[in-house]
Design brief:
This protein is about 50% helix and about 25% strand. The strands form 4 sheets. Strands 9-11-12-14-13 form a 5-stranded mixed beta sheet. The protein has a 4-stranded antiparallel beta sheet with strand order 1-2-3-4. The longest helix is centred in the middle third of the chain and has 51 residues.
Length: about 400
């Protein structure tokens, strides 16, 4: 029995069948096998008449056949002993069984699905050599499985049950952490939303005309408030993605209408930066998906990134019907993306090598969440760039729906 450690899933123990168990199985084969072989050799040595020559020939053939059969069975038993393993990690239990020389089966249990691990030690031999059987029972529909020849079975059972308890504790701690994150995020989001509404009222002239410096400040404050709300919502949705809790409310909607509306909302910000926003949007691009998440995490996020990383030039928003699908693209004449950075963009917390120099507030979660949303709605997302200073184009494809 050995103990091993790995970086991701930690292997706690690896147990082979006890050698005494293997010898017991071998004895059950060797004793009757050698008895039969001895009888055949004895018969072969008896004086036989000419009429019994055929019997003598058969016995002569049976001796090597019996020896070869005995050797094969012992070889299989040794292979089973050497290759059968019982592995316990901090997440799973694995049991490999050698069926024959060329085939193995692997049984697997999640550690948190185990309700009981019962030890059976029978007879003086098992007690003396400290090995026995282990019966693993599941919480729900899993049938009980008994594995024999386990060395020090009490220790193995203790490791399994201890990890089961530890898994439950960790799961409960993670749940409480997610609840705390959601609580604080919702509180911060509420305050930011109020600030956003106040600055939006000022920008829209609800409190009278503004001087040029005040108008600039109000627009900047409104943009920062919106950015804060988007960041909090990205954190919330990323937490849901990690825990497998992100839900999509899929229904038919026209992405063309959404694209026109979002483009017009972004246009003043783009022009204030001295850029141009070009659009090429086909009509009636209907798809089945979560409109709110696609708008916020995909369309708005891609336009926001293009605006941040484009110092001069223009941004192009395109939405086209393709054969059996809809392709959305956001192209810019910005800083571009190095080949080595492209693989990082859609990973959790992924940043380009120099992205922090341009956008110090980047969390690295925007494109990660966007990818989850796109794939969760049956689409795919990718990026193309010729390198630094050559701009970039992000593509998103969704299957279309007949309106």
């Amino acid at each position: 029995m050995t103990e091993v450690a790995q970086d991701d899933e930690q292997v706690l123990l690896v147990a082979h069948k006890h050698w005494a168990s293997m010898l017991g199985e071998a004895a059950l084969t060797v004793v009757p096998g050698l008895t039969i072989l001895w009888l055949l050799i004895l018969l072969r040595g008896l004086p036989l008449t000419l009429a019994d020559a055929s019997v003598h020939a058969v016995i002569t053939l049976l001796v090597p056949f019996c020896f070869l059969t005995l050797w094969t069975i012992l070889a299989i038993q040794w292979t089973n002993y050497y290759l059968e393993m019982f592995v316990v990690t901090d997440r799973h239990i694995f049991y490999t069984t050698q069926v024959n020389f060329t085939e193995r089966t692997v049984s697997q249990w999640n550690i948190h699905d185990v309700s009981h691990a019962t030890v059976h030690v029978g007879g003086l031999i098992e007690s003396f050599f400290n090995y026995g059987s282990l019966t693993i029972e599941g919480r729900e529909e899993y049938n009980a499985v008994t594995i024999g020849g386990i060395p020090d079975p009490e220790y193995v059972a203790a490791v399994i049950l201890k990890q089961d308890d530890r898994y439950g504790e960790l799961k409960e701690t993670a749940r409480k952490q997610r609840e705390l994150l959601h609580f604080f995020s919702h509180e911060v989001k509420g305050h930011l939303a109020k600030s956003k509404a106040a600055f939006a009222s000022i920008v829209e002239g609800d409190y009278g005309p503004l001087s040029s410096p005040l108008d600039t400040m109000a627009h900047a404050a409104l943009a920062d408030s919106q950015k804060g709300v988007d960041t909090v919502m990205s954190m919330l949705d990323n937490s849901n993605t990690e825990s497998g809790e992100m839900r999509f409310e899929k229904k038919p909607f026209d992405l063309s209408l959404v694209a026109h509306r979002v483009a017009e909302e972004f246009r003043p910000r783009v022009e204030r930066k001295g850029l141009m926003l070009l659009t090429s949007i086909d009509d009636a691009c209907v798809l089945q998906g979560d409109e709110e998440k696609i708008e916020r995490h995909v369309l708005r996020n891609l336009l926001e990134n293009a605006l941040r990383y484009t110092p001069v030039g223009h941004i192009t928003l395109s939405l086209k019907k393709t054969e059996g699908g809809i392709r959305l693209s956001v192209a810019d004449t910005g800083v571009g993306i190095e080949e080595s950075d492209m693989q990082k963009l859609f990973t959790e917390g992924g940043h380009g090598e120099h992205s922090k120099e341009i956008n110090a507030d980047s969390t690295g979660f925007g494109l990660f969440v966007a990818k989850q949303v796109v794939e969760g709605n049956g689409g795919r997302i990718w990026v193309s760039s010729e390198g630094q200073g050559a701009g970039s184009t992000f593509f998103v494809e969704f299957p279309s729906t007949t309106s």
